[in-house]
């Protein structure tokens, strides 16, 4: 069966819809290509795929985020390039390329990076990037790229 490749249900990624359910097509996703389409800003996050009801996002970030927690879900960061400090109230975890961390549900955290990082983010669809806090950084719903 030949599947449509774009703009189905407004999604520009390899998604198809069957009876209202979004199902990924088995298309290769190249992070370098995706990041090349990012805006030239210190902070940007975009969705590249879905796995069941989880969004796989890519993020680039330079600078300080804000303290927040996600009351309903864990949050996974997989660092592709650069360095990130994941600040917790009782410790700081340094993350480099090739390393990952799962921030547990409800635990306050604040990512920061002087030199910048690029990462994969995995969390359930629709989770706000600043969790329980509304701020200038808050992105309620990321866009697809
Ligand atoms: Ni978070």
Which tags fit this structure?
145 residues, mainly beta, Jelly Rolls, seven-stranded mixed β-sheet, two-stranded antiparallel ribbon, 1 helix, 4% helix, 46% strand, globular, disordered N terminus, binds nickel (II) ion
Structural class given helices, strands, pairing?
A: mainly beta
Helix content: under 10%
Distance between the termini: 25 Å
Gross morphology is globular
Short description:
The chain has one helix spanning 31-36; strands at residues 15-18, 21-24, 43-51, 54-64, 75-87, 92-96, 100-103, 110-124, 143-144.
Q: What does this protein look like?
A:
With 145 residues, the protein is mostly beta strands. The chain has one domain (29-144): Jelly Rolls, CATH 2.60.120. 4% of the residues lie in helices and 46% in strands. The protein is built from one helix and nine strands; from the N terminus they run E-E-H-E-E-E-E-E-E-E. The chain has one helix spanning 31-36; strands at residues 15-18, 21-24, 43-51, 54-64, 75-87, 92-96, 100-103, 110-124, 143-144. Strands 3, 4, 5, 6, 7, 8 and 9 form a seven-stranded mixed β-sheet that branches. Strands 1-2 form a two-stranded antiparallel ribbon. It is globular, with a radius of gyration of 16 Å. The relative contact order is 0.23. Mean pLDDT is 86; it is low at 1-12. Bound molecules: nickel (II) ion. Nickel (II) ion (NI) is lined by residues 68, 70, 75, 109, 131.
List the helices and strands and how they pair.
Elements: E1 15-18, E2 21-24, H1 31-36, E3 43-51, E4 54-64, E5 75-87, E6 92-96, E7 100-103, E8 110-124, E9 143-144
Parallel strand pairs: 3-9
Antiparallel strand pairs: 1-2, 3-4, 4-8, 5-6, 5-7, 5-8
Nickel (II) ion (NI) binds next to loops.
